[in-house]
Write a structure and sequence with these properties.
409 residues, Major fimbrial subunit protein N-terminal domain-containing protein, 8-stranded mixed sheet, Immunoglobulin-like, 2 domains, mainly beta, elongated, 38% strand
């Protein structure tokens, strides 16, 4: 998978490095000469072949990189004690901040001077600062065990486009990566007695992404069919995780806490303890549901996308046991014989990479585009165990990071 690379590399001979010596280490108890580390971010390039965007989204499938926190620590000590933390704000208009951000995300690179000699590892966390995200920065263990909510990975942020910024939807997702194998490289031109080190950090999202569209009932109102029409009313996810941690995402095969449809998500009524009403705009799973102003579908050739060309987008924590499933809510499902059917739902069962391919397991940092085409036989009751479900084919793309570079009047 093509990930975005954040490289901490030695860049001797370049006179364009930005540097910072203002932040003192958290711990100053090391022996020996100080270290100097050059930080250079590369690989921010490429594009997606998808035009899938949620209603209101201006940029498809791109992550807006707004802020970075870089943590220097000792990997050999218990819990990873932190010796320095540096913050960078890609939205600041301060000339100094803009210069530092440009150096950090550009080709010049960035040198961190006077690090404690006990530093032997680097952790990078991106898009950590806003939208309700909470990290504990006591040590590396506490950072990695900080609980992140799926709801906060689905917030709208500005893309800071010029000349007219627009609000891009759900692209402020948490990014992280680390390198625990830094090595000596060159002499710091500013502090020639200090040893510089290099490292390579691949940062990636904790989430995967659904982009869902082309909703179609391929045999509706055709010869031999049983339904004449129905209204589209809503769409949402079930069987998804509400929270995750970096630690949890590091261990292959470890599942995030998942919701189970028949015990946790209910169709109607008052939710009990640990239950959520599907389609409610105010509960902990509201980020995973979109209501649809009723659209009547009466032909097999009709394909629905929100606003004609856009998609429904959900960022979710990937789980090794499978994808979240998609539930489509219908209304006024009319039989050709006249009465209204009591079946109002279409629910996915699993996802494949082609009509005859293998079942797909989600991976962080991937965009899964889905054409939600189903047949009349897939229209059923609330509980999918009582009826047939849809097996959906998915197309996969990688995410792209877009760094911010503010302009001034």
């Amino acid at each position: 998978m093509k990930l975005f690379s954040y490289l901490l590399v030695a860049c001797a001979g370049l006179g364009l490095f930005a540097c910072n010596t203002e932040n003192d280490p958290v711990i100053e108890n090391g022996d020996g000469p100080t270290k100097s580390v050059s930080l250079k971010l590369n690989g921010i390039s490429g594009s997606l072949n998808t035009k899938a965007v949620e209603p209101g989204t201006a940029v498809a499938g791109k992550i807006v990189l707004k802020d970075l926190k870089i943590v220097f620590y000792d990997k050999t000590a218990a819990n990873g004690p932190i010796y320095r933390i540096e913050e960078f704000d890609g939205t600041s208009t301060s000339p100094t901040d803009v210069a530092n951000w440009t150096a950090l995300t550009g080709t010049a690179g960035y040198i961190f001077h006077d690090l404690d000699p006990k530093v032997n590892a680097v952790l990078v966390v991106g898009n950590w600062k806003n939208e309700g995200k909470t990290f504990t920065w006591t040590n590396v263990s506490s950072i990695k065990s900080s609980v992140l909510l799926a709801a906060n990975e689905n917030k709208a942020v500005s893309d800071f486009a010029t000349p007219t910024p627009v609000t891009s939807t759900k692209n402020y997702v948490t990014l992280w990566g680390q390198d625990e194998d830094i090595s000596p490289t060159f002499t710091d031109p500013v502090h020639p007695n200090a040893t510089t080190y290099s490292a390579a950090v691949n940062i990636k999202p904790l989430v995967s992404r659904f982009e869902i569209g082309n909703i179609q009932c391929t045999d509706l109102n055709t010869p031999g069919s049983i339904y004449s029409s129905f209204d589209l009313k809503g769409i949402g996810l079930i069987d998804m995780s509400l929270e995750n941690t970096i630690t949890q995402s590091e261990v292959p095969g470890v599942s995030s806490p998942r919701l189970v449809i028949n015990t946790n998500i209910i169709e109607s009524g008052t939710p009990g303890a640990g239950q959520y009403l599907f389609g409610s705009p105010t509960n902990a799973i509201s980020w995973a549901y979109n209501s649809i102003t009723p659209v009547t579908i009466s032909a097999a050739t009709t394909i629905y996308n929100p606003e004609g060309t856009k998609k429904f987008v959900y960022n979710f924590f990937p789980d090794p046991t499978g994808f979240p499933n998609i539930k489509l809510v219908l209304d006024n499902v009319m039989l050709k014989t006249g009465p209204e059917s009591s079946f109002d739902y279409v629910v996915t069962a699993n996802f494949k990479d082609s009509p005859t391919g293998s079942t797909v397991v989600p991976s962080a940092g991937k965009i899964y585009t889905i054409d939600l085409a189903f047949k009349e036989e897939n229209i059923g009751p609330w509980d999918p165990d009582l009826f047939k479900c849809v097996i959906v084919n998915v197309t996969v793309a990688d995410w792209v990071i877009v760094p911010l570079y503010p302009e001034f009047k």
